[in-house]
Amino acid sequence: MFLKFRRIRRCQCMQLMTTCLVLSVVMVCWEQLDNSVVSHVKSYSYRYLVNRFIYINKSLTIPREQARSFSNFQYLLDHPDKCAGKDVLLLLFVKTSPENIERRNAIRSTWGNETYIQNTLGVTVKVVFALGVPQTKKEEPSWSKRSGIGFQEQLVHEDSLHGDLIQQDFLDSFHNLTLKLILQFHWMHSRCAHARFLMTADDDIFVHMPNLVSYLQDMSSRGVTDFWIGRVHRGAPPIRSKDSKYYVPFEMYQWLAYPDYTAGAGYVVSGDVADKVYQATLTLNASIYIDDVFMGICANAIGVTPQEHVYFSGEGKAPYHPCIYDQMMTSHGHVEDIYDLWKAATHPQVKQRTSGLMGRLYCTAVKMALLCKPYYFNTYPCKAAFF
């Protein structure tokens, strides 16, 4: 009897300790959990039950003279004849920071090499880099300090070698990413309006250019319009936590949800959409500094909806495997490994190993194992295994 009573007491103590532990964890995490859950519930309710995104357009519409302040910057580096006299399938803008010369050189040597694209893939793709001016001398990279030449002079020298930097005189910072987005659409409108597609991408992204070119050639042959493709975010709520990099105050954006948009790491629009977005930027308040959200606002204003492509990644890095490379479009977060990935992803054996009935069955099984994991997110979804 005494032993039984001791067991009961011990069991009760364990239950009490477990309960206290759980309550402690909940109390610590409650504020963050509450903010996340509540904001998403509000966002989806607004999107699917109320769906008054039309009010966003009205609230952000401003006079043209005022909107011009977001685009009326002087070009410091420019190439107005970059697309002249050429049948351009794709104008590809890479968003870059002035100090990221190694990333730009890696892109020029791999997936963004225009000569390779022209000679091997038989199409014209123009790759240019969008940037502003460095904020302070403290941000000058080591190569600039060693040479004793100023940062801007180094950029001028780099541009004289490659002829692909498009720079305006706004500060290059996270909070000016929307200005960099506007730069891209305005530059295309005035310098490369005949390009069939426009892509915007980060400078740490990997683009499988053979796959992308083949896909866009197919879309072009179909005469697609209102085309906007990438990794789609639906019903995303504004982040109101001041600790977040993506904090947006109520005064800047008062609504409960953002219009649908694609991850800024990399997406593609058709030429007609690019022109419509350009027109939208002439009357919209661009003070919101999350550029992919502003793209969603512009698209909402012109009545264009983004389309999901399972092989465009979000913020995640795709698995390394030939079965992934076979259909890969973009993968995010590549800097040091970009040369090796380019070599592996474009190797002729990739198509050989993944073709035929057995190759397709094998790759389906491999992709299910790689992609269908509960904790694997922000890159290709599980359904990509069956495409």
Task: Give a structural overview.
One of its GO terms (cellular component) is Golgi membrane. Pathway: Protein modification; protein glycosylation. It is found in: Golgi apparatus membrane. By secondary structure, the chain is α/β, with parallel strands linked by helices. Helix content is 47%, strand content 14%. The protein has three domains: 1-50; 65-308, Spore Coat Polysaccharide Biosynthesis Protein SpsA, Chain A (Alpha-Beta Complex), CATH 3.90.550; 322-386, no CATH class. The chain has helices spanning 2-50, 54-60, 64-67, 101-109, 114-121, 142-147, 151-162, 177-191, 209-221, 271-281, 291-302, 322-325, 338-345, 348-354, 356-371, and strands at residues 75-77, 88-95, 124-133, 165-171, 197-202, 205-207, 228-230, 232-233, 261-262, 266-270, 307-308, 330-332. The strands form three sheets. Strands 1-4-3-2-5-10-7-11 form an eight-stranded mixed sheet, with helices on both faces. Helix 8 (177-191) crosses helix 11 (291-302). The chain is globular and about 70 Å long. The termini are far apart. 38% of the residues are buried. The model is unreliable at 1-5 and 25-36 (pLDDT under 50).
